[in-house]
Amino acid sequence: xxxxxxxxxxxxxxxxxxxxxxxxxxxxxxxxxxxxxxxxxxxxxxxxxxxxxxxxxxxxxxxxxxxxxxxxxxxxxxxxxxxxxxxxxxxxxxxxxxxxxxxxxxxxxxxxxxxxxxxxxxxxxxxxxxxxxxxxxxxxxxxxxxxxxxxxxxxxxxxxxxxxxxxxxxxxxxxxxxxxxxxxxxxxxxxxxxxxxxxxxxxxxxxxxxxxxxxxxx
Length: 218
Known about the structure:
Strands 2-1-3-4 form a four-stranded mixed sheet. It has helices at residues 16-20, 22-32, 59-75, 91-102, 106-118, 127-136, 141-150, 154-166, 188-204, and strands at residues 5-11, 36-42, 174-177, 180-183. Helix 2 packs across helix 9. It is α+β, with helices and mostly antiparallel strands and 218 residues long.
């Protein structure tokens, strides 16, 4: 059986384009069929102590009117510039992601973070908010809170950030589809092609000859 195509996606919870990338990704995977493994990877656009952005300043409303809202309308996504000011640091939320991923709910957690921020105006920098959101997707709230309070997953998050640096990620979303790199929100057709090309590259790396299988057949 062929190995699944692996897709890594670097994102930040305060990046609207990362949320908008979900639709094209799901559409492309559905269209190509076969096995595809998606792994969401953390990337902090503005790590502490760098100041985060404020929605009342000129930059955010401008970029949303010029780029975010037109793309959201085209993709049919309900998304609004959050009024949370200043925007939250996302390190703590990403430590929560590591907890969720370990408990098999990493993708659900990511989706919940995006919707909480961009559709519900929730402050992802507050531990009480994160705990409630985690509980809402089925995670143990007490265990989740203890993990964030104790910094249980801090080292794992920092290791993930080092991986982003090793791949020279400087903007999000950035995707690796096998060895094919895509920066920005992809078109479904573009992503489909990347998945199929990655699948073909994997197939080319396998040479088939006479063999015996684990079931005893030769």
